[in-house]
Amino acid sequence: MPTESQSPCFREAAVSSAQQLIDFASPELESLVDRAEETFKRCRKVAQKAWSRDYPSLVLFRHMIDMADGIEVLLRAGTSGPMIPILRTMFEAYLSLYYIIESTSDAGYEKRSLAWLCFGIHDQIIRKGKRDGKLEEDRRTGESCHDPDLITIAKEFLQQPDCADIAAKLNGKTQIKLWTALCDKTLNDRRALAKYLKGEDLYDDIYGRWSAVTHATHYYRHLVEPNDETVDFGPLRCSAQLRDSVGCSYGFLLDARNLMTKRFLPGEDLSQSKERDNFVTRLERFNLKRSTHQT
């Protein structure tokens, strides 16, 4: 006879343990996602060069909106562990967006935007060239798994006069690990970029104590008071770090929305600039107990 599954119990318990936080933070984050999406649409409408200098800002902002929306879904489910990889990609997008828009001149903004775009295009050409053999081998066998027209368009883009210097650096002998090194050779890794943008503390959290979760090297995360005799695993879904994770995602998206507003919608009222501080202050009221497994 089939047995009745007891698996829903841990789901209900996770939501119940964080219900007050969920009731407060979920509508707030959902509202911010909606407002950010509306801002994206307005920025897209006024972008003058949506497939060159303005494209990176638009796609990075949209990526952050998408990730924040996913975090809101996880928040309602009362689980913080799966939020960590999403927070990491949000942080990386935020660093890139901040660095691009931080430039005070149009020339600097365009240079940084094109550097991001050319780096991404160049990387995709290399990856597609390696996939299932080299391009020429694919053509000979007729088994190419990529769109040759896309490769052609990408290569033609890199050959534009505005991209010539960037393309030369990408094809040079110096290894470019991070696209920002195309603009400043000292910014060839994310730690250097985070330090430049005064986000080193966040970097240390996301790439330090939370990195083990992303890379699946957190060896005791699901254990309950391990000892030499027994190994016991706690329930799924940990709500203990919901507050910190939601606060980070809210702050990233709010800052990104303000950056986009200043760049594309100058003169817009940003009187809600203290919105993040107010949200975090209210969020700190919720002190969730740590479950039997740590994130």
Structure description:
This protein is mainly alpha-helical and about 300 residues long. Helices cover about 60% and strands about 0% of the residues. The chain contains 13 helices and no strands. The chain has helices spanning about 10-15, 20-45, 55-75, 85-100, 105-130, 135-140, 150-160, 165-170, 190-195, 200-210, 210-215, 240-265, 275-285. Helix 2 (about 20-45) packs antiparallel against helix 3, helix 3 runs antiparallel to helix 4 (about 85-100) and helix 5 packs antiparallel against helix 7. It is globular.
Order of helices and strands: HHHHHHHHHHHHH
Q: Largest sheet at a glance?
A: none
Helix content: 55-70%
Number of strands: 0
Low-confidence stretches: 1-6, 289-295
Strand content: under 5%
Radius of gyration: 22 Å
Number of helices: 13
Shape: globular
Q: For the residues shown, what is the average pLDDT?
A: 83
Q: What is the terminal separation in angstroms?
A: 37 Å
Based on helices, strands and strand pairing, what is the structural class? mainly alpha
Short description:
Helices cover 62% and strands 0% of the residues. By secondary structure, it is mainly alpha-helical.
Annotate the secondary structure layout.
Blueprint: H1 8-17, H2 19-46, H3 55-77, H4 83-102, H5 106-130, H6 135-141, H7 148-158, H8 164-170, H9 190-196, H10 200-209, H11 211-214, H12 242-264, H13 275-283
Main features:
globular, mainly alpha, 62% helix, 13 helices, disordered C terminus, disordered N terminus, single chain, 295 residues
